[in-house]
Write a structure and sequence with these properties.
single chain; alpha+beta; Chorismate synthase, AroC fold; 2 domains; 22% helix; globular; EC 4.2.3.5; amino-acid biosynthesis; Chorismate_synth; Chorismate_synthase_CS; chorismate synthase activity
């Protein structure tokens, strides 16, 4: 069954005898009739096929996620992955384990192993260039927890808005609005990270820099040297042990009351090739902002100095250039966050992402039923008292997906002919700079 519009030909469209309408322009109001016929069995030439939207990300490295929180499973299809990349489930499982629920008392208690299976696109341990399908089964469903939500809307969740848009929704776990959808992203992000690391030595590291009112001072983290092991050394994923304990205490204080708090995740990217991003609508920070703001519960994004830069003058904020000991152009400061003019400039990219408190809390709240009656609701189910710690690998994922897509775009447009060595640098590491791929 397809939607069908009754139409007239566009200017320039050929007549049945092969001649053209060029020169016989009609005003736009006369180009289309207003009748919409549903359903229609008109000829194929008059059918307008509408594809499902919103579940695919990327242009060259494309990722489509599928599945729902309490369905049979979730996963992704990766299209455009370069061939001959060594890849296995183990490469993805590392980050899936970092994302999964049930890790500690400050995460959702839902028990899932989140074990992934690659169903296509691999031969003899290498990518073939064909689509890669990754599947993760759901094993810890408790659909009965959501019986009350079939009648009333959870405040600040997607329940009401999904009904307003589609006229129907998946009640159990929120369906596609559940953070469980991010499993497919993380699996694809592991592939993107491996490509970036192997090709250009790019490293993406994120950590929790704020939980509720506990803020980690920026000068306590060295972005040149901070490691994944330091971040993963505690359950809140803060690289400073002292502030990690303060954050855990802040989350515990609201967790025992059935409430939740928000947090901030800082993400840095080291060894970023210069030139990623395309003016004007595809600026790198614009692509990153869209990717990051698609993560469930994210509600703020900034690059470099961000909003704090508004308190400075231009002379204070500008990143002045200089020549380093290797004869490379660098900046003395990095208030632009490694992106100038919408393009990566070879410095460390730095971002901060705000995550709001989990909308689903186990306390009585005022709401409205689906049949438009005011009521009170106590939300059941298993939820994160603070989403920031589990959001860390998801943030890394979305940054990786943007960067690998932009890397492939840069290679396609600007590396077809020899570069101008006086002004440009190769995207790939030289043979003198070997990279150990370790995820």
């Amino acid at each position: 069954m397809a939607w069908s519009f009754s139409t007239k030909q566009f200017p320039g469209a050929p007549f049945s005898d092969g001649s053209s309408r060029l020169g016989s322009f009609q005003p736009p109001s006369k180009l289309y009739s207003s009748s919409l016929q549903l359903p229609s069995r008109q000829s194929q030439s008059k059918r307008l096929e509408i594809q499902a939207s919103g579940s695919t990300f990327g242009t060259y490295f494309r990722v489509t996620t599928f599945g729902e929180s309490h369905g049979g499973g979730v996963g992704c299809v990766i299209d455009g992955c370069p061939p001959r990349l060594p890849l296995s489930e183990a490469d993805m499982q590392v980050d899936l384990d970092r994302r999964r629920p049930g890790q500690s008392r400050i995460t959702s208690p839902r028990k899932e192993t989140d074990t992934c299976k690659i169903a296509s696109g691999i031969a003899d341990g290498q990518t073939t260039g064909s689509p890669i399908k990754v599947e993760v089964p759901n094993t810890g469903q408790r659909g009965d927890d959501y019986s009350e939500m079939s009648l009333a809307y959870r405040p600040s969740h997607a329940d009401a808005t999904y009904d307003f848009k589609y006229g129907v929704r998946s009640v159990q776990g929120g369906g596609r609005s559940s953070a469980r959808e991010t499993i497919g992203r993380v699996a694809a992000g592991a592939v993107a990270k491996k490509i970036l690391k192997q090709y250009s030595g790019t490293e993406i590291i994120a950590y929790v820099s704020q939980a509720h009112k506990v803020v980690l001072p920026e000068d306590l983290v060295d972005h040149e040297t901070v490691t994944l092991d330091q971040i993963e050394s505690n359950i809140v994923r803060c690289p400073n042990p002292e502030y990690a304990e303060k954050m855990i205490a802040a989350i515990d204080a609201v967790r025992v009351r059935g409430d939740s708090v928000g947090g901030v995740v800082t993400c840095i990217v080291r060894n970023v090739p210069r030139g990623l991003g395309s003016p004007v609508f595809d600026k790198l920070e614009a692509e990153l902002a869209k990717a990051i703001m698609s993560i469930p519960a994210s509600n703020g994004f900034e690059v470099g100095s961000g909003f704090a830069g508004t308190f400075m003058t231009g002379s204070e904020h500008n990143d002045e250039f200089y020549m380093d000991e290797h004869g490379k152009i660098r900046t003395k400061t990095n208030r632009s966050g490694g992106i100038q003019g919408g393009i990566s400039n070879g410095e460390i990219i730095k971002m901060r992402i705000a995550f709001k408190p989990t909308p689903t809390i186990s306390r009585k709240q005022n709401t409205v039923t689906r049949d438009k009656h005011e009521t009170e609701l106590i939300v059941r189910g298993r939820h994160d008292p603070c989403v920031a710690p589990r959001a860390v690998p998801v943030v890394e994922t979305m940054v990786a997906l943007v960067l690998v897509d932009q890397l492939m775009a840069q290679y396609a447009q600007c590396m077809l002919f020899p570069i101008n060595p006086a002004l440009q640098e190769p995207l790939q590491l030289s043979e003198a700079e070997p990279v150990q791929v370790r995820l």
